[in-house]
Amino acid sequence: YVQGGYLRKGFSKHGPLSNPYSFGFFEAMKHHNVPRFTHMFILYAGSALPSRYHGKLFGVEPLQGRVVQSDFQPDRSSYQTKDINRPISTSDRHFRPVSIKVGPDGAIYVADMYEPQISHREHFSGQIEKNNGRIYRLQAKGAKPHRVPDLSLLSSRELVALLDHPNKWYRQITQRLLADRKDRSIIPLLKRKISEETGQIALECLWALYVTGGFNDAV
To answer: pLDDT at residue 45 above 70?
Structure first.
């Protein structure tokens, strides 16, 4: 999704684009020919799965009853993907993965609708079995239960230290808490880290500086 963008659809456009300064449609990501439709995916940025999964795309294939793993590479101003394998597959024709998320423990969670078919007509009229859904967790071998801490109990300076956490979930919760607090006492710390650090941590600190209220013309 591109904010303010015109995305290519499966039907012709209805009249001219409403923005006179638009250069046309934003095309879909390039991908080799595959017999599937992926309506939801994640880019794995957790810290619990082996390194070969980091930065990869995981998408659901409800019609085929599988979860796909794809390589994800820059392509000019967009990206392109190429399937690697299917970490979750089954011969059970009722397996219908419809949603996928990364949990705070770094594992991947998949919601299975568990229906014999995916059909908007039957679902819209309520002709579905509401008691058979399930959730699966894709985790590393030997993974131990993860106790999620209450990050709201941490001080603002302790939260800043979490902006470098390898699990994106922690970084996102930290950004939300800092945005809620608007604690201006950490602005000098964030400015210093922006000047000293590079890569993702510098970017996280820049975002934190903005939500804290310390980003201005001088900065």
So the answer is: yes
